[in-house]
Amino acid sequence: MKTRLLTFAALAAVMAGSGAAWAQAAGDYSPPRTAWGKPELSGVWTNTSLTTLQRPANAATVVITPEQHASVLSKNQYALMAKDEAGPSKIDKESSDKLLADKNANRGYNHVWIDAGNDYARVGNDIRTAWITSPADGMIPYIPGKQPRMTITYDGPEGRPAGERCLTWANLGPVLRNGMYNNNFQFVQTPTHLMINAEMIHEFRVIPIVASAADAKHGPKEMRNFGGDSVAWYEGDTLVVETVNVRQDQRPYITATGKVTERFTRWKDSEIYYQFKVEDPSLYSAAWSGDMVLRSTKEQVYEFACHEGNYGMHGILAGARELERQGREHPPEISIFAGLAADE
């Protein structure tokens, strides 16, 4: 009985939060408009926060109370790192030995290089631990055994992940994401297109805008792109983007049978209300959806040079060639879940 009550309370909180967000989006706010009369989306926006796509293990619900907030924040990995590294560094043997024994030494970066934000996001009046709101548990409803896997090999660059090859990243979507740094997006809007330029990897999506949903047409299925085949139209003051046919080496959330629908609504001078819905019966037991807030920022999107991946690629392939010269076998192929990022 107690479990049922807790589950019902969590569901009620998510439903109440979604209702509040919709009420705010549908309020009396009048957005700034372009010269051709559409809501202005151009600018630089950010989704920097500790909130992740799926609900983290240190949070029991998607929407948390102010009282729960302090407890969840105190257990967040980035918050713990910031606390651990606060203050000036000590350069002495004791500190160096402590660093070598650091339980987080495999994280690759110290906090000075990380820009994941210092708090969980607010969507409307809700404090959110996850962007997914349906299902109510904030988790992707994979059909058991259907979660796609990706095999990583050492034979050549094509066997390495697309992110390691500096080709694409999870942030640009679809669905839009955030990570431990580089969470800015530049929107450039014209009467016929929307361009979204992601700071991470410096990749972009160019989305044609048509008159209505009835005019939306996708290209040949044989032509798959990073970011997929997207087309957009306005429904009132909301720009709706429909995407299919995403390249599978991008580690997308849909297969050839799936569809992602995104909605962009300017609901404040300083915010875009972003909603998403993912449908793919070959992967999921039900459609899943959620929302987030993109906040305006005065930061600019500068060039992203993916040097680390390039140097890493040379080292990985050079090591594989050396093993071949010595007549030794490659390390075992690595099989990973293809629809998830490191922060999940």
Structure, explained:
- With 344 residues, the chain is of the alpha+beta class.
- The protein contains five helices and 15 strands.
- The two termini are 30 Å apart.
Q: What is the alpha-carbon Rg in Å?
A: 22 Å
Could you tell me the strand content as a percent range?
15-25%
H/E topology pattern? HEEHHHEEEEEEEEEEEEHE
The main sheet comes to: 10 strands, antiparallel
Count of alpha and pi helical runs: 5
| Mean pLDDT figure | 86
Count of strand segments = 15
The low-confidence parts are 1-11, 13-17, 340-344
Provide the helix percentage.
10-25%
Envelope shape: globular
How far do the termini sit from each other?
30 Å
Structural category: alpha+beta
Topology:
Elements: H1 2-25, E1 43-46, E2 63-64, H2 66-74, H3 77-84, H4 93-100, E3 121-123, E4 126-128, E5 132-134, E6 149-152, E7 184-189, E8 193-198, E9 204-208, E10 229-235, E11 238-244, E12 259-268, E13 271-279, E14 288-296, H5 307-325, E15 334-337
Antiparallel strand pairs: 1-7, 1-14, 2-4, 3-4, 5-14, 6-15, 7-8, 8-9, 10-11, 11-12, 12-13, 13-14
